[in-house]
Amino acid sequence: MAKAQGLSHAVVHRIWRAHGLQPHRIETFKLSGDPDFVSKLRDVVGVDLNPPAQALVFCIDDKPQSQALDRTEPVLPLRAGIPARQTHDYIRHGTTNLFAALNVLDGTVLAHCAPRKRHTEFLAFLDQLHRTVPPRRDVHLILDHYATHTHPTVDAWFAAHPRYHRHFVPTSGSWLNRIARWFAEITRKRIRRGTFRSVPELIRTIEDYVSHHNRHAEPFIWTATAATILKQVRHCRDALETAH
After folding, report:
1. Which of 111, 127, 220, 226 has its CA 20 to 30 A from that of 103?
2. pTM for the whole thing?
């Protein structure tokens, strides 16, 4: 731009900075095409902001295909002014699927690793959750509309356990499910930074992280209202229509 306009790089930089422009940065976005987006949004956010009295609320999802990656060379530890370094190439030792339920009241997490991601594994996780919650308490689950969560046998499980209530986030709306935030944290803090020589080693690392998290758990507080979110979505759609 400086060359095209006959200016110096410093002048262009000052103009960008004065107008808050950062052309070196780019962010991504995804608009949901769910025809029931508004109703699902209001349902999920309503549970987040006004949890049903005397009931438990869990955010549930799974993190599929977590890889046990071993680096081709030992990790170089951090030093003064130099971050820890690891090779960009790696050796794959298999994967595991992490099922997790976040208790929105206290921030604790129930987690289980399974070799596959099917409705049978999800049912086993539901049974595990069922054994941990107090009897005769209503339980509200926030989850996505993935096939494993709506399989006929899963529907039958919920029919046999009427105190459990499902609240589905819209398609492409995983950001409405607070367990996604927890998945991002365990990925950033433990899985991506780790070196694992086997799947059992990866699973032990995940279990250790869950235990440590639960000893120091704090809830993720949801503050955005449905009206605020819908306003931002409309603003984004308007920007797409006008191309700026």
Report:
1. 226
2. 0.85
Delimit the domains of the chain by residue range. 2-242
What the block records as the tokens of 235 is 């603003």
Give helix 226-242 / helix 37-49 axis angle, nearest 10°. Answer: 140
| Residue whose C-alpha is closest to residue 128's, from 113, 110, 146 | 110
Tens-of-pLDDT digits for all 244 residues of the chain? Answer: 898 989 999 999 999 999 999 988 888 877 888 889 999 999 999 999 998 888 999 999 999 999 998 888 888 888 898 888 888 888 899 999 999 999 999 999 999 999 999 999 999 999 999 999 998 899 999 999 889 999 999 999 999 999 999 999 999 888 899 999 999 999 999 998 888 999 999 999 999 999 999 999 999 999 999 999 999 888 888 877 776 5
